[in-house]
Amino acid sequence: MAGYKKQHTDGPNSEDKALDLFAEMMIEKIESIRKDWRKPWFTEEALQWPCNLSGREYNGMNAIMLLIHCEKEGYKIPRFCTFECVQRLNKSDKDNQEKPRVSVLRGEKSFPIMLTTFTCIHKDSGEKIKYDDYKKLSDNEKKEYNVYPKMQVFRVFNVAQTNLQEARPELWQKLEKEYSLPKIENGEYFSFAPVDALIKDNLWICPIKPQHQDNAYYSISRNEIVVPEKEQFKSGEAFYGTLFHEMTHSTGAEGVLDRIKPTTFGSAEYAREELVAELGSALVAQRYGMTKHIKEDSCAYLKGWLDELKESPQFIKTTLLDVKRAASLITQKVDKIALELEQNIDEEQTVAPKEKVYYSSVAYLQLTDDTMRLDAFKDKGDYEGLLTLAKEYYDGNGINEEYTYSSPIQNRGDNLLIEDKDFAVVYNGSVGGTYEVMLKFTEKEVRDHIRRYGIEHAGDTLKGVAKEMAAEQFAIMTQQKIPAFEMPNGDVLYVSYNKESDMIDIGPVTNAGLVAQHRFPYDHNASLDANLQTVNEKLNNMEEYREELQEAEYSGGMRR
Fold first, then answer.
1. Is there a domain that residue 514 lies in?
2. I want to staple 282 with a disulfide (CB 3.0 to 4.6 A). Which of 40, 41, 212, 404 is the partner?
3. Strands across the sheet containing 484-486
4. What does pTM read for this prediction?
């Protein structure tokens, strides 16, 4: 590559080689945009955010390069795995059936990703501790340690570079289905509710002011973003793409990420800031399924970016790290608003529980029992006498958990003969005639019983009430904070209760809501806090979250 100056005297290490490759790929990408600046940063086809095989998303820096890599190589499924991960697939089968071995195809080359590890050393004793142990220390205890970050390079393969399709066809079909979701059409005019709410409710780090004019900019002196009104853009994607560009600029202000100063605007140094804004907005747009084209004003900086990249590959490292931090700040805010909007909709659609009556079977009398006296009252039409007699069959044991219903009528032929405020008698004339004596309970009494005794022996009705209770408790908790777990490796996993499946869903949040990567049964015999504690312990014991490798995430991210 002409004009490319190598800086290494002792030979490049793995990080240098990765940066050289990243720089070459970015130069190729920028040169293609230079020839046609109207083309998007990333492919307009349905290419979604890159993840590892277990579904964990790559961070901003790695995501950019993997997106470009997928586009260049034509990979339709942006899932990647290390060689060790491929080998683990051959050990994960729990049945005794022989399955074909999963392997990397012959001749396929891996692609580098860069992760940051941390070494924690006590200032006085020199003792080393693991980073996940360091994170558990108090603020005062942390001051006793020096923390040294180190960038490391790992090699990954796309799933298309393996025989996964033949060896594990069910897994391959699942991935194909997951990544066959259509993206937003390029010209479609649409609204993105989380960002609309962010503007309307002034939830960003600075005011955003849509105005009917022709300029879009971030004013560092006034600390505000000004953009044309959405209706002035040819598509919704164009509006949000422009807004993401200016939001990326705003993350660089003093007191936020401290990238830019007032004197930076208009200077030579600002060319790099413009590249950060371009890549940051492209990455955020891709995150939410939108196409991002280069901002026309940024075209003037194309040659400067190419010169910097050809002069020093380190330029791409510092730039991509800034892109990662900025994009993370934006997506965390948008994801938080998206989750809150989803929960508000669920609450609006949920009818406030009314005080209702439940019927619990306390005696079931059939032909083999002595029902002659009951028959006599029924035949005479003396239902008051029948009810008085029926009450004598109640043994005083309270709610029959398995046979409690929201209605006294449960079977074909059932006939409610009589009821008062405490009891009901149901008669069914089939099979010689049966009488069912039912004790009535209010919803409050049923809920109190569930809280006290759980649902170990409960039937479907009580289990349904327990699910409602869990959903209500979860909704109350999320009004105060968005529940999430921070894993030892730095991942943040959001938590939601799925009433339909009666499971605790764990995973990342997108504009479409929470994407469940893990699901755990909800234990109604334990409290909500106990359930969350159990789930947290299970997650911490998972190998993928116990890794010592930590990705360098922006420290101001959302936490539980």
1. yes
2. 41
3. 484-486, 492-498, 503-507, 518-521
4. 0.58
- Give just the sign of the alpha carbon dihedral 120, 493, 161, 280: negative
Separation between Cα atoms, residue 144 and residue 246, nearest integer Å: 40
Query: What is the biggest distance separating any 2 CA atoms in the chain, rounded to whole angstroms?
Result: 109
Say if residue 348's pLDDT is above 80. Answer: no
> Could you give the angle at the alpha carbon of 435 between the alpha carbons of 433 and 441, nearest 5°?
155
Alpha carbons 260 and 251: distance in angstroms, whole number: 9
pLDDT at 66: 92
Interval 349-379: pLDDT, tens = 655 555 789 999 999 888 777 788 888 888 8
| Cα–Cα distance measured from residue 279 to residue 17, given in angstroms and rounded to the nearest whole number | 22
The span from the CA of 200 to the CA of 470, in Å, is 32
Asked whether residue 500 falls in the same domain as residue 539, the answer is yes
Three-class SS state of 260: coil
- The answer as to whether 523 is a domain residue is yes
Last residue of a domain, one of 400, 432, 453: 453
- Among the residue ranges 348-357, 412-421, 493-502, 504-513, the one predicted with the least confidence is 348-357
Residue 46 banded pLDDT, cuts 50, 70, 90: low
Q: Is residue 435 part of a domain?
A: yes
Amino acid at 16: D
Judge contact between 500 and 518, C-beta under 8 A. no
Gap between the Cα atoms of 528 and 526, Å rounded:
7
User: Containing domain of residue 545, as a range?
Assistant: 482-560
- Number of domain units in the chain: 2
Q: Is residue 446 in some structural domain? A: yes
Give the three-class secondary structure for 449. helix
Give exposure, 438-474, as e/b (b: 16+ Cβ within 10 Å).
bbbbebeebbebbeeebbeebbebbeebbbbbbbbeb
Rounded to the nearest 5°, which phi and psi values hold at 183? -85, 170
**Helix %, strand %, coil % for the chain, to 5?**
40, 20, 40
Helices (H), 161-235: 164-167, 169-178, 193-200
What average pLDDT does the structure give for the chain? Answer: 83
Helix ranges, 220-294 (H): 236-250, 270-287
